[in-house]
Amino acid sequence: MNKKISKSIYKKNIILFVFSCLLATVTSMLFIALAIILQKFIDYSINKDINNIVALTTISGILLPSGAVGMYAGYAIKNLYTKRATLNLKNTLVEYILRLDMRSFNNESNGTYISRLSNDITVIQNDYIKGTVEIVVQLTMLVGGVLMMFIINSILALSILLTCIIPLAVSSVFNNRMQKAQCEVAEQNKSYVSFIKDILSGNQVVKSFNIEKEIFERAKAKANKQEKAKMVYENLLSLIMSLTDISTFLVAVVIFVVGTRLLMKGDITVGEIMAFIQLLNCVTVPINRLITGFTKRQASRALLMNFNKIGEAKIDQSHRVDIPEFSNSIILEGLSFSVDEKKILNDINFEFEYGKSYAIVGTSGSGKTTLLKMITGFYDGYEGNISYDGVDLGKISDQSIFQNVSFIHQDCFIFDDTIEQNIKLFRECESDEFEQVIKKSMLQKLINDRGGIDVLCGENGIHFSGGEKQRISIARALLRKSPILLMDEATSALDNQTARDIECMLSEMQNITRIAITHRMDESILSGYDEIVLLRNGKIEEHGTYHELMEAKKGFYALSMLSSYNSDFSMEVE
């Protein structure tokens, strides 16, 4: 366990942890005291010692309510400690996830992160955080109970202690198997949560292709694996508990056999035997709970190791530098990129100059989106060089890149919050700036129709159309005022006139470098770009202004004519 996770559980809550253990320990000592009181009651009753019986009754009358108050206080502080430790652990894990660079983040599915924050946290809360306090309490009770037994009668105490070694040996045998079983449960939880997330996210696809039956069968198989893993874990736990229960019975037998013999010899009183029987709960119960507690704690510790992996997955950027605001050019030199030995980009050489606008066009699969992601450092393992104002991309910190770049994705993500917060992204800004952005992204009518900027958007903007979400996404990018604006089909869901108006507005913006992927071969849109880049099979086939490329009558001209034909054909069909 790394220091930050350990600190989130213990160091930040050390006072609560100590008081929780102390109060619970004091309360557990009450049970030991009651055993002694029981012994004295019996022995005094046999001897008809009325004065001592009255004194013991008075002491019991004080101890019992005091113990009840102490027990409640112990539980209350334990619950507060558990709450704070769990909250700190959750916050630490969320912080780890948010600080992951994009490459590290995408090494795991969203379902994995959800499972870590839900299923795994619950297990750790019950078996590790609460379990640690419980182990301290039970260990104290065990030690206190054994010491008191030795004080009463060392021979009987030693006999009981030797018998108690059996369950401890059983526990050590099953520790590793329990850890593996717990890890398998976590893995199956992750798999099931990921699949359910896919079903919910892809519900339209499921309905459209009428594959409910197939999806249901897969869901049943996933659920079966999940519950089977849980059953294996529970069976192991039940086996350990069964063996410890048997050992508890053996301890009781030892008390009666050895105790009876000692009583017959006059080495022990009836009251002392009854005290041993009472103290049996202070020995066997702690042993049983310690065995299951230690086993569960070790198993849950394996889940904490998964948290460590997330924390350690962040790429070390200490050697990377921050760059000033972009002001010159982005240069691609000999840029090539492959996935599974398939060339996605092949020997790209190009310069994106500050203040200019560029349209990237090409057929599906030509490498357009990959090129944009390469510019932001989304992928590594490429050949060639990418530089910002002469500084190699690999030497620039991710934070510095995204301070200079705003990326408008085709699939715009909308938070389950208000329109205002989805544009501001939870940051403050001047009201005049905000109003200007609303106007430029043509959101005013939408806001008026929906009842204001405080209207909730729903999960991933479920209450909005694709075009409306794209305008919100454009507004948030404009509000950032980054010197570089990357757009991946950012107006694809808009009608032609709205798209033209927004493109016209963007083309009039000063001191911004705009690189946009577009499928719109509309002259009124493309002629507003300083340069158009045509990609084919991962290579730049040609580039130039709209009129230069149309006059050249090569690849771009052919693509434009094909697009125009398809558009005319669609209109005729309609």
Automatic annotation (TrEMBL):
* InterPro entries, per database record: AAA+_ATPase, ABC1_TM_dom, ABC1_TM_sf, ABC_transporter-like_ATP-bd, ABC_transporter-like_CS, P-loop_NTPase, Type_1_exporter
Q: Does the keyword Membrane apply?
A: yes
Q: Which GO terms describe its cellular component?
A: plasma membrane
Q: Which SUPFAM superfamilies match?
A: ABC transporter transmembrane region, P-loop containing nucleoside triphosphate hydrolases
Q: Does Membrane appear among the keywords?
A: yes
Q: Which residues cross the membrane?
A: 14-38, 50-75, 146-170, 236-258
Q: Where is the ABC transmembrane type-1 domain?
A: 18-299
Q: Where in the cell is it found?
A: Cell membrane
User: Where does it primarily localize?
Assistant: membrane
Give UniProt keywords alphabetically.
ATP-binding, Membrane, Nucleotide-binding, Transmembrane, Transmembrane helix
Bilayer topology term: Multi-pass membrane protein
**Boundaries of every ABC transporter domain copy:** 330-562
- GO molecular function annotation: ABC-type oligopeptide transporter activity; ATP binding; ATP hydrolysis activity
Task: Give the top-rank taxon of the lineage listed in the UniProt record for this protein.
Answer: Bacteria
Q: Which Gene3D superfamilies match?
A: ABC transporter type 1, transmembrane domain, P-loop containing nucleotide triphosphate hydrolases
Name of the protein described by the UniProt record: ABC-type multidrug transport system fused ATPase/permease subunit
Q: Which organism is the protein's source?
A: Mobilisporobacter senegalensis
